[in-house]
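Appendix C reproduces, verbatim, an entry submitted by the partner laboratory led by Prof. M.T., so that reviewers can inspect both the input and the predicted structure.
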Amino acid sequence: MDRIVGCTGCGSTEHALSRRTFLGMSLGTTLSWLLHSPLRAGEDVTVAVGRKTRKKSCILLWMDGGPSHLETFDPKPGTSDGGPYKTIPSTVPGLGFVEHLPRLAQQAKHLTLVRSMTTRELEHGRARYYFHSGYKREGSTDHPGFGSLVARNRRDLDCGHLPKNVVVGYEVHGRGFLGPETAPFVVPDPSNPPPELFWPEGMSSDGVRNRVQVYQDLDREFLEFRDPQMQEEQDKVRAETLDMMASRELRAFRLEEEPAPLRDQYGRNGFGQGCLLARRLVETGVPFVEVVLGGWDGHRGLHDGYSGLLRTLDAGFSTLLEDLKGRGLLQDVLVVWAGEFGRTPEINKDNGRDHYGEAFCSVIAGAGLSGGRTYGKTCPAGANVIADPVTVPDLLATACTVLGIDPHEEYLSPDGRPIKIVDKGKVIRKLLA
């Protein structure tokens, strides 16, 4: 959360606001009517595609809740607890996928299945923190999430006035102690972008800015007696908000410009349309987009619950790969599929699987990496890693390296302590081929 201080007329002290909430409130109550009007009809704000020098960006497909490796990318057919799903062949000889991922099976040549992930963080909040920051949640330091780190370190990517860190769905991890410009910009519904993004019909940018100046003058009187840095950050976020509202690149959020058959292919749901939005954003130069698909916490009735989730995943993930490839973007975009941990190899009494960290899987694709392969191996029951274990910091350090970020670079925490981007992570050189 970014802390924005000061709210005219209420006499309150501090309000902790997310960047998106600030977008909706920063213009003041006198302008609230502006924030629910569409983009001016007929305005030419076409997204420029293919005109920039491409540099590597990242799309994280986050499976919130901890997906089972046995029901996704490390199936164990024929074992006592392997589950009822059948395994189907993929386009890579010897590489099998569960039956509910047929389209991803056809995209296997682009994928590297990391089947030897391991973690000791088995509580959802702590595990999310660990996977997004590369640090265990200990002490008072609030470590920045991976999206904020990418936003901070890939300032060379030109996305105009768009946010450099976008989350589709809901925020899983914030900016930590990094500046507000790295904070996640949350889009809850990709098919209906926040209306406060767009200029009101019939009002010029000068008109809006004049009204904002009135609000800012009033607000400044309140902030005079507060922390000057808070005032500076608030002014900066407000200026960025106005620039974004006037930005031609903002058209990237308009999914209705895409052909209906392509939108159908992605899936007419939050995750599928989120993957499409992610493609449009990285195409416009945004360095990091996270798309969240929740519902993987399968303690009971796992196989009934997973079948629909897997079909949603299959459509969105596979179409994203096809679309990136068809547009010549896959070489420049690192796609990571991950969740906080895995599920137990034993099916419990409620026909589910519980939290498990000894063995689980992640998937990487794109960014010039070789596909059609697996890295690491689990035992026949999927209970233990028996070759090439990979920790969460290892995977993050490797992803940083792919993106051109030094994972061992140090920066200072608020109390002046040097902190590496990723804690104790080793780059997996074999994955870089």
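The first strand starts at residue 2 and ends at 5. Additional entries are available on request from the coordinating office.
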